[in-house]
Design a protein that fits this description.
The complex is a heterodimer of chains A (320) and B (471).
Chain A (H helix, E strand, L loop, with lengths): L2 H31 L18 H5 L3 H7 L5 H10 L7 H14 L6 H14 L4 H7 L1 H22 L4 H27 L11 H13 L3 H8 L5 H10 L7 H15 L8 H15 L2 H7 L1 H24 L4
Chain B lengths: L20 H9 L2 H18 L2 E3 L8 E3 L2 E8 L1 H25 L4 H4 L5 H5 L21 E10 L2 E8 L6 H14 L1 H6 L8 H10 L11 E4 L8 H11 L2 E3 L4 E4 L2 E6 L2 E5 L1 E4 L22 H6 L4 E3 L16 H9 L6 E2 L3 E2 L3 H9 L4 E5 L8 E3 L5 H13 L4 E5 L5 E6 L2 E10 L1 E4 L3 E2 L5 E5 L13 E8 L3
Parallel strand pairs in B: 3-23, 5-13, 6-7, 6-11, 11-12
Antiparallel strand pairs in B: 1-2, 4-5, 4-20, 8-9, 9-10, 14-17, 15-16, 15-17, 18-19, 19-22, 20-21, 22-23
The chains are: A mainly alpha (320), B alpha+beta (471).
Chain lengths: 320, 471
């Protein structure tokens, strides 16, 4: 397959996945903003719940350049509609559709039509409309479009290289995004230290679980109260949880092995993927908690970023 | 006023021509609501499928739908047979002409065509002189524009031999009509066109440079912002070959390779939809970023086939067009089956004088123009437009030709005020390789403005499905 085509497919998938996860991130923020909180230092903007999605996406600086004030509306505008934010939901849907358009020949016509109609609907959105029909309803629509696209891909596409690059893009993006969503809790403050393990703490964890569609799974697996330790286990180490880091890494590792089948030597890319996979396969929740969940997640984000760089070098941006 | 023109559906006495009867019956028994519903369904489907073209001169990336009309243009089987023979004959002669002017110049030596008209033409590529191309074929894909003026009376308006486009609309229009009117296809013998991509691929493989490998074919596009990008992607997908841009290719030891995720991969035939000038910055325009450095050297070395060949523009140039009937006589010793439109060459004093006196009756075109840009339709133009054009002609008469305004046939078309006659043309696609072939039909374009004779999509034209009936 052409390197350019592989690159477009990979980014098409990443953009759709990013749109979905941005919706999830906004969803959890929305849920948490409805719970009581108290800024430690009143007036300190970043302590507000609406600062959290900006911090975990690494977009706080850019946001404050565009909007002087941190309000729910401004964050939603920036993260959903803003054309200067390449990670906004609209930009992601547009980028995915443009990528699909430039590699139409490599995907099925159903896939293109699906992304095209998603974009045709998204481009006429404005804040008034979103507000009128409800922010949650819009975020659900974004998630639904992503589900639809995955379903169309799964149901119509030949299992060829193109399919594997799409799968690779989806899971690299998802691994990154799940780590960021999980990190939301670290940045979200409780009314007071005494509330650790209390009702608000509980609701925050359950909001986070719901945002990654993990609430019911949690109940099924643990049939017990929600504890941070178990949430970390579910979203990091459990292989059977489709948005967990382990599950993503397992897909990534497997996909890279398929894509490299004719290579003689093990590349740095395969080694790094294997190592990261092994750490999740054999990791222990206790060790993660001991290291600190936030620190663990930051380290994971660095590693997945580096792996993305290796994928680039090996497949997407040829050096010959 | 429609009676002045030949109407494809209705005869002069108002009766429906027999090959249109089943469609006329359908129209009669279908309510206005149902028809409106069908038209909306078609528009929605075209949008969703993304069958769009980019419009130049507007914001980058502006995409539009070409309006689609649900009334088909129907051609009786016997008329098609005549058209088919005439088109094959014409394209054969044009390919022989191209081979000749890039080799021995026989037609120039015989004074059938003035030598300077060919050799001094800006579309003549000196680089191609003496070079052999695979199979001696230059115009692998020709889009010949044909119009009907009367009963059995067809004229060729233009031979498009560079990178003719529109065939994807022919295919998508058919798909749409089969979806909208399955009952009409079920009860009538309408000849299929869907095998066009297979014919094209077979044709392209047939002109690969001789080698032991299975020839690898790719479609070369200028990229997603080109007006015909949809078509490039569509054809690559339908043929099951790669769609490449210049940046995806490189040349090593005169062979052309694609950059793939598994390393370099050889390409043997490029169905290129990039203009000559932009193909290779080393050989042609140095500022081209769409091309592949070294591609022309590879082409000269016979390691890759370009379809169409470089330098075909000289044969579809409007100053050469008047000589096509003579080419047919010269190379094939046959009489032309299809007519040329009588053409005034304004480089000639007499023709120029006549033209300036009859500007209101004539169509004036730029010799090197295309796409309906830079032309004057005398009867439709305002006197101010005519005067502006007149001064352009007088200052550079050699840049223009003029033709009588043809009474283009009309076909009933849905308009804001209901069904009304609109002028149409026809572009069949003739494929040349080991054989000369075409699918029965082509792209029918329709001028949607009342009375307009300009069918180009860039000038507000629409399209229709074209049905060739089996007898």
């Amino acid at each position: 397959m052409l390197c350019r085509t592989a690159n477009e497919l990979y980014w098409m998938a990443r953009h759709i996945e990013r749109a979905e996860n941005t919706a999830r991130l906004l969803d959890v923020t929305y849920r948490m903003s409805m719970l009581p909180y108290e800024a430690i230092e009143p007036g300190l903007a970043w302590a507000e719940p609406w600062a959290v999605p900006l911090i975990t996406s690494g977009l706080a600086t850019e946001f404050y350049e565009r909007f002087p004030q941190l309000t729910a509306e401004n964050v939603l505008r920036y993260m959903i509609l803003d054309t200067t934010n390449p990670s906004s939901i609209n930009c992601c849907l547009r980028a995915a559709r443009e990528a699909a358009r430039s590699v139409r020949g490599a995907i099925t016509s159903e896939m293109y039509e699906d992304l095209n109609s998603a974009w045709l609907e998204a481009r006429v959105q404005d804040f008034q409309r979103i507000q009128a029909s409800g922010v949650s309803e819009f975020l659900d629509w974004v998630k639904m479009r992503s589900h639809l696209f995955r379903g169309v891909t799964f149901g119509t596409m030949l299992r060829d290289e193109a399919y594997h690059f799409i799968r690779l893009g989806t899971h690299i993006e998802r691994a990154d995004n799940t780590a960021r969503i999980l990190d939301v809790k670290y940045h979200t403050l409780l009314p007071s230290a005494a509330d650790v393990g209390g009702a608000v703490d509980y609701y925050q964890w359950s909001a986070l679980l719901r945002s990654v569609s993990g609430f019911e799974s949690y109940r099924k697996i643990y049939s017990d109260v929600i504890t941070p330790r178990r949430v970390a286990e579910l979203l990091i180490l459990r292989k059977d949880m489709p948005r967990s880091l382990h599950s993503c890494m397992s897909f990534i590792h497997e996909t890279l092995e398929i894509l490299c089948d004719n290579d003689q030597d093990t590349t740095e890319m395969e080694r790094a993927a294997g190592e990261l996979h092994a750490r999740l396969m054999y990791g222990r929740t206790d060790d993660i908690i001991k290291e600190g969940l936030h620190e663990y997640l930051m380290d994971f984000l660095d590693r997945i970023y580096e792996l993305g760089g290796e994928v680039n070098k090996h497949f997407l941006v040829p050096t010959y | 006023m429609s009676r002045l023109y030949y109407d494809e559906m209705q005869a002069g006495n108002g009766s429906v021509r027999s090959h249109y009867q089943p469609f006329a019956d359908w129209l009669k028994r279908t309510t206005a609501d149902q028809i409106a519903h069908k038209r909306e369904e078609a528009e929605r489907a075209f949008h969703r499928v993304g069958i769009t073209f980019a419009v130049y001169g507007e914001d980058a990336g502006t995409e539009r739908l070409i309006p689609f009309d649900i009334v088909p243009r129907i051609i009786p089987g016997d008329e098609w047979r005549m058209l088919e023979q005439g088109l094959k004959q014409r394209v054969k002669a044009l390919n022989l002409f191209l081979h000749d002017i890039y080799h021995d110049h026989n037609i120039l030596k015989a004074n059938v065509i003035p030598a300077e008209r060919v050799l001094g033409n800006t579309q003549y590529r000196k680089e191609m002189q003496g070079m052999d191309v695979a199979g001696g074929i230059y115009a692998h894909v020709a889009g010949v524009d044909v119009v009907r003026a009367g009963e059995g009376e067809y004229y060729v308006l233009e031979d498009n031999l560079r990178v003719p486009s529109g065939v994807s609309y022919m295919l998508e229009n058919r798909k749409m009509m089969m979806r909208l009117f399955p009952e009409l296809f079920g009860t009538q013998a309408i000849k299929p066109v869907e095998h066009y991509p297979d014919l094209l691929l077979e044709n392209l493989r047939g002109v690969a440079p001789s080698s032991n490998e299975q020839p690898e074919v790719a479609v070369l596009t200028p990229g997603a912002y080109n007006s015909a990008y949809f078509e490039h992607a569509f054809l690559a997908q339908q043929m099951g070959v790669e769609l490449v841009e210049g940046q995806d290719l490189f040349v090593q030891n005169d062979a052309v390779y694609m950059r793939t995720t598994r390393g370099p991969h050889r390409v043997h035939v490029l169905y290129r939809r990039v203009d000559d000038d932009f193909l290779d910055p080393r050989a042609f325009r140095a500022d081209s970023t769409l091309g592949v450095p070294g591609l022309f050297a590879a082409y000269r070395a016979g390691k890759v086939t370009l379809a169409n060949a470089i330098g075909t523009g000289v044969a579809d140039d409007k100053s050469i067009y008047p000589f096509v009937p003579d080419m047919i006589r010269f190379y094939l010793t046959e009489e032309p089956i299809l007519n040329n439109v009588p053409t005034f060459q304004l480089r000639k004093q007499d023709d120029l004088r006549y033209c300036l006196e009859h500007l209101a009756e004539l169509v004036v075109k730029e010799v090197h123009g295309a796409g309906g840009y830079g032309m004057l339709v005398g009867p439709a133009a305002s006197s101010a437009e005519r005067e502006a054009f007149r001064s352009r002609i007088v200052s550079q008469p050699e840049k223009y030709i003029a033709q009588p305004t043809l009474a283009l046939s009309t076909c009933p078309t849905f308009t804001a005020s209901g069904l009304a006659p609109r002028h149409i043309d026809l572009r069949p696609y003739v494929l040349s390789g080991k054989t000369v072939n075409l699918v029965p039909g082509g792209l029918t374009r329709v001028a949607l403005r009342e009375g307009s004779l300009v069918v180009n999509s860039s000038q507000g034209g629409g399209t229709k499905d074209t049905w060739v009936m089996a007898d």
